[in-house]
Amino acid sequence: MEFELDLEPSEENINEIRNGLVEHNSPFLTGIDHRKVAYYAIDDERKVAGITAEIFGNWLLINFLWVDKTIRGQGTGSELMAKLENYAESQGCHSSMVDTFSFQAKPFYEKLGYECQMTLDNYPISHSRYFFTKALK
User: Fold this and answer.
1) What are phi and psi of 43, to 5 degrees?
2) What is the pLDDT of residue 137?
3) Is the distance from CB of 130 to CB of 104 less than 8 angstroms?
4) What is the pTM of this model?
5) What residues form DSSP beta bridges with 116?
């Protein structure tokens, strides 16, 4: 057996490893709902905010939440979160998970009832990364 360090792995090489892991995991995750979902705020036919997530089994996994700087602080992010959480609940989700950096939205998620489960300090160098969960109604 040989070992090879690849400092510029191609998408093909990355997908080969990912596919091997998916194949290994499949027997344990067969039949579990896994789909993407998004909610957008649109003003004058332009997205001014949005949230993307996945429903994975009974969990809502929030990937990205963005609100245009011109409308931040006006409740748009909170409204998007509430709409997405309500949708997730209607799909059988009992919990939600999100992560954020120290320079992003920690107080925002805390205000929405999310509880910090884990903190990575000095990530990636001088910030912190927080992992939050929330029980949905």
Assistant:
1) -130, 125
2) 84
3) no
4) 0.89
5) 132
